[in-house]
Specification:
The protein is of the alpha+beta class. It is built from 11 helices and 11 strands. Helix content is 41%, strand content 22%. A hairpin with a 3-residue loop joins β3 and β4. The longest helix has 23 residues.
């Protein structure tokens, strides 16, 4: 039995610039952090069963991997030329469709397990690229490259994406007290609402097509978001976290212009209230938008903010930064027969 542990992520700057429709023209820039909330994938070779057995929110039992309905598991097994004789299960600390990259976490965790199963140990970069190949090329999902790389690498990480899709990964080194201050000021609240990221990302991708009537607006806002991401990096490097808060507010205003589905009247009203009453300097919905988790930068009145949000039904997610990416946490030998 092999078990892997893969961190979820929170994007701090540059979100949306990792989509091929943007980086192929302008290059992408992402600053994100892995957090101590995880996707767990367990892979076992049954002693007598030769089928592929898959457990997730549903269960599947098929003779061949190509028969699986779960796209990510099917294509990962096909890529590694494994057709039968495996049982795969998954568990997660965070619900799916909440903006923290759960699908890519599952895929990267499974690929990490498959490499260990085949005793074919490889680099984190290779695992991230395999995940990108499956999601972006084979399945043609309208997503970017940050989720796969953040799942593989974790940490406080800078991703610079070239026009040809090559990704340069750089860690952001901060002192322990700087990290503690940043995490303390960045509250994350669950909005009790899931969303389909594909719908919003597809609208953004379509907006990058030259013939689209929204092309100029989408492109200009993504260029602005990329520049804000670079400024956010500089502010965090300098320990100027309040400036990061204000920049995050600018980022959120630009992001909302990409689609009218990214936010809602309820969230906008809530956001304006906490800025006015509880000293919040900036915030955003994590991920593609539409629901999931709301991050608020609050240097003051932290307890008051948490109480207010709890009364509204939005509970705070405790977290810290996870400095390791996807890894094998158990590898136990099982005997086979036949």
């Amino acid at each position: 039995m092999i078990a892997t542990k893969t961190p979820f992520r929170i994007t701090l700057g540059g979100g949306g610039t990792d989509l091929p429709s943007f980086y192929k023209k302008h290059g992408g820039f992402i600053l994100a952090m892995g957090i101590d909330k995880y996707m767990y994938v367990m892979l076992n070779r049954p002693i007598v069963e030769k089928r592929i057995i898959l457990h997730y929110t549903k269960s599947e039992s098929v003779e061949h991997a190509s028969q699986l309905k779960h796209e990510l598991a099917r294509e990962a097994l096909k890529l590694h030329e494994i057709d039968s004789g495996l049982e795969i299960s998954s568990l997660a600390d965070i619900p799916a469709s909440t903006g923290l990259g759960s699908s890519s976490c599952y895929l990267v965790g499974l690929l990490t397990a498959l490499h260990a199963y085949k005793k074919n140990y490889t680099s984190l970069n290779q695992i991230a690229e395999e995940a990108c190949q499956i999601e972006l090329e084979i399945l043609s999902k309208g997503i970017g490259k940050q989720d796969q790389y953040m799942a593989a690498f974790g940490g406080m990480t800078i991703l610079e994406i070239a026009k040809d899709g090559q990704v340069q990964v750089r860690p952001l080194h901060l002192t322990s007290w700087s990290i503690a201050e940043l995490v303390s000021n960045c509250h994350v609240y669950y909005l009790q609402k899931k969303r389909d990221a594909m719908e919003m990302l597809q609208e953004q991708n379509e907006g990058m097509i030259k013939d689209s009537p929204r092309h100029v607006q989408v492109e200009e806002n993504l260029l602005r978001i990329k520049e804000l991401g670079i400024q956010i990096l500089k502010a965090i490097e300098n320990g100027d976290f309040d400036r990061f808060g204000y920049l995050m507010d600018s980022h959120w205003q630009s992001k909302k212009l990409l689609s009218n589905k990214i936010s809602s009247d309820e969230v906008d009203q809530l956001y304006e209230t906490v800025k006015k009453e509880y000293g919040v300097l900036g915030g955003k919905i994590i991920g593609a938008g539409g629901g999931g988790f709301l991050m608020l930068y609050a240097p003051d009145k932290k307890k008051d903010l948490t109480r207010y949000m709890q009364k509204k039904g939005y509970f705070r997610l405790p977290y810290s930064i996870e400095f390791e990416g996807s890894k094998v946490v158990a590898n136990l030998k099982t005997d086979s027969i036949g």
